[in-house]
Amino acid sequence: xxxxxxxxxxxxxxxxxxxxxxxxxxxxxxxxxxxxxxxxxxxxxxxxxxxxxxxxxxxxxxxxxxxxxxxxxxxxxxxxxxxxxxxxxxxxxxxxxxxxxxxxxxxxxxxxxxxxxxxxxxxxxxxxxxxxxxxxxxxxxxxxxxxxxxxxxxxxxxxxxxxxxxxxxxxxxxxxxxxxxxxx
Length: 184
Known about the structure:
Keywords: DNA-binding, Hydrolase, Magnesium, Metal-binding, Nuclease. It comes from Actinopolyspora erythraea. The chain has a five-stranded parallel β-sheet with strand order 3-2-1-4-5. Helix 6 (114-117) links the parallel strand 4 and strand 5. The protein has two domains: 4-128, 5'-nuclease (Rossmann fold, 3-Layer(aba) Sandwich), CATH 3.40.50; 132-182, no CATH class. The chain has helices spanning 9-12, 15-26, 36-49, 54-67, 90-99, 114-117, 127-137, 139-152, 160-167, 172-182, and strands at residues 4-7, 31-35, 72-73, 103-105, 123-125. The radius of gyration is 16 Å and the shape is globular. The chain has ten helices and five strands; from the N terminus they run βααβααβαβαβαααα.
């Protein structure tokens, strides 16, 4: 079984970051986890922060549900009151606990202090840290995913070096590490 990682909504809204994360999950370097509440948040926020229409946002989330059927964590709501992290994100930690996540991937690490996650043996990492770990542990799969991602982009066509600056808005250290590995 792959390494279980709970993906917070903030990791699933930026399209480039999401593409990388989900392509890696398809190679089974890790198993993504999320809740219906997180997916609803993604669907609600995509049109607000991008040019994506509500219909395209619904379709994107529907594809995520279909492609990663075992990612959905359910029956975590009873754990929410016992969580001690930031109140608005207690549902995230509760779902990560119920799903058996080894790590919670979020840009909002301050909302998940060590004291709140340590009892459940869940690490909290940024998307940058998570992808750097993936690159270190699975360099071939990670680089292949990136190359396939840019090869699939046709409007406009891209290569790795035109894509990395866009991705670096969310994961700058990872992009720098990829750039060092593949050279120019």
